[in-house]
Each structure stands twice: as C-alpha cells, then as structure tokens.
Design goal:
about 350 residues; alpha/beta; OB fold (Dihydrolipoamide Acetyltransferase, E2P); GMP Synthetase, Chain A, domain 3; five-stranded mixed barrel; 15 strands
C-alpha cells in the first residue's frame, strides 16, 4: 500500500536526525492508527509495517471473552473458534481491514507530516533532557524581554529561563541583549500546556557557592570546603569554610586567592564577600568572624554573645543598616551584643 518513497524518506530522516529507524516506524504506525480511529471510532486498531517492502496491514483487534459486553472490542470464544481454533480465552483476534480511503497519496502525506512533527517532539525532548543537566549550574543568559517583575532570558538549547524580581540583585541594571550570569535552580510546569519553565536566580545562595567552586582551584579541589553561606544579595555575604591546613597556612593561601574572590564579587555587582575559617573552638571562631577587628573579650550567656571591642572599631562592625551584624547573627544563631571599651 505504501510506496518506496516513504522507505527512502525514513532512511534519510534516520541518518539526518540520528534516530533509530524502528522509532520512526513506530511513529508511522501510531500516526496511521490515530488517523483510522477518527473514522473507525471505538474499535481497537493496530497497524503493522513490513519494514522491507514498505507495505503495511491494518487490523481490528478483538479480545476473546466468555460474555461479550462490547461488540466493537470483544468476541465470544465460541465465535472465535469459527475463525481460529487455536485461540484461547483472553487471547486477541486480529481481523484484517481494507480501507479504500487510505490510498497511497493520503498515506504519504499523512505519514510524512506526522513523522516530522513527532521527530520535532523527540528532538525537543532530547534537548530538554540535556538542559536538565544544567540545573544547579551557572549559565550566561541573554535578556530577551523585560517586564515589571520578571525578565525572560535566552539560555541556549532553544530554551528560555525566567528571572523573577525577588531573585535579582537589588543593584542590577538590565537592558535588552545584555548578557548576565545566572544559576538555574528549579523547573516548574505550566498547568495549561505542561510546558516547562526554567527558573533562574542571581540571589540564590547556590549562585555564590557555584561561582566559587567553579573558579577557584582551592575550592574545586577540596583544599577549602564551604560549610555554609549567608547572603544579603548584591551587598554582602559571609562564607564559612573548612580547611585541610592549619590557620596560618590557610590564611596565606587565602591571601593568594583574594583577587579571585574579588572577581566573583564584581560578577555580583560588588557584593562584599567575607571568607571565615571555621573552628570548633568558639573563641577562635569568634575571633575569625570579626577579623581583622580585634576582640578585647567576649562572654556567652544563654542565647546571647557579648562582644567587647575598642570604640574606634564600632563603625566597622555596624556598617550601613546593620547588614554585617545581621549576617554575623546568622552565623551563631544567637543575639550579638556589641559593647565598646
């Protein structure tokens, strides 16, 4: 029924798109079945291709039952014996169909268009699976559209990502075609068409963590490991690290990578990044948190830490809007009381 042109079409399409021919034949069978079902309603239809000749056969399928409830889908075991005595209960009987309205021209047009459409779906699915690997990675997005509370970014792979207002840096400046670094942190599904929405962020904690791990050798190779991060995005962040080395060697290594930290700071519009060495010794840790400000003394009482410093250093800790102090509070999860001497 179907001519050799379709076989040639399948061959070239398989080579061009690197898709297995059996997959394309399956698409063909399903496409013709769907077309037939529009006219042969309520029947179970099966199309089977001869992959050598390009011909195909159409069958109605009936389940063999004791009592028939649906004459379009079932046949009694008694009647099935009249056709094939080898069939048993719950087997399926295939009845061949000859449909005059399915001529070569109709089939050719139908199959080609359906194959092309299905191939596009497969390609998009493959692209999607590849893109999903980028969740948690830093990408460069090109701004396509700017709305009041969100930005649409072209992130490659034929996909867009959405950067919502609450995931922007407060001092970001956006314009069409500008390229910015973002992290893909999640995927949502649109309810009305099941399309996927890729969610981007510049304020997410993982954005800073990933920038550091990707760009600084000592973090990439676990000489330093990030214990936790607290951010006030675009303004200031504090990163607590665990080091393989002692305090002096760690400090010396950090001085060498300080320029790299500053470059990451510039990627985030000048966000100040404080690197703090973790210690189980609370005295050492407090000292590291406030470095280079010298702590005269401190005491811990219940949920409070009382810090005593020289008056001249007070402004360095408080800074604008107490942002620094609020981040320090998160490090200890205690109330921080700064006192001057």
């Amino acid at each position: 029924m179907i001519n050799k042109k379709i076989l040639s079409f399948i061959e070239s399409l398989s080579n061009e798109k690197s898709i297995d021919k059996n997959t394309i034949f399956n698409i063909l069978e399903i496409s013709i079945e769907e077309s037939i079902k529009k006219k042969e309603k309520d029947f179970n239809i099966k199309v089977i291709f001869d992959k050598n000749s390009g011909d195909f056969s159409i069958f109605k399928i009936f389940k063999i039952v004791n009592i028939v409830n649906d004459f379009k889908k079932e046949i009694s075991i008694k009647n099935s014996f009249l056709i094939n005595k080898n069939l048993k209960l719950n087997d399926y009987l295939y009845e061949k169909l000859e449909l005059s309205y399915l001529n070569n021209r109709v089939i050719s047009e139908l199959t080609k268009q359906n194959i092309i459409n299905k191939i596009k779906e497969i390609e998009r699915k493959n692209l999607l699976n590849n893109f999903k690997k980028n969740i948690g990675n830093i990408l460069i997005g090109k701004i396509k559209k700017i709305y009041k509370k969100k930005i649409i970014l072209d992130v490659g792979y034929e996909f867009d990502a959405i950067l919502y207002y609450n995931h922007m840096l407060f001092n970001d400046n956006y314009f069409i075609d500008k390229k910015i670094k973002i992290i893909i942190y999640n995927i949502n599904i649109k309810k009305y068409n099941n399309d996927l929405i890729f969610l981007a962020s510049r304020s997410h904690t993982n954005m800073l963590s990933k920038l550091i791990k990707d760009n600084i050798y000592e973090f990439k190779n676990n000489i330093f490991n990030i214990k936790y991060i607290y951010r006030n995005p675009g303004i200031k962040s504090k990163i607590v690290i665990v080091s393989k080395y002692n305090e002096i060697k760690t400090y010396n290594i950090y001085k060498k990578i300080e320029n790299k930290i500053n470059k990451i700071s510039n990627e985030l519009n000048g966000e100040l990044i404080d690197i703090i060495l973790w210690s189980y010794n609370i005295k050492k840790f407090i000292k590291n948190v406030f470095f280079p400000i010298k702590i005269v003394r401190f005491k811990i009482y219940e949920n409070n830490i009382f810090i005593y410093i020289k008056k001249k250093n007070l402004s360095k800790i408080l800074e604008k809007k107490n942002i620094n102090l609020k981040l320090i509070y998160k490090l200890f999860n205690k109330n921080i009381n700064i006192n001057t001497l």
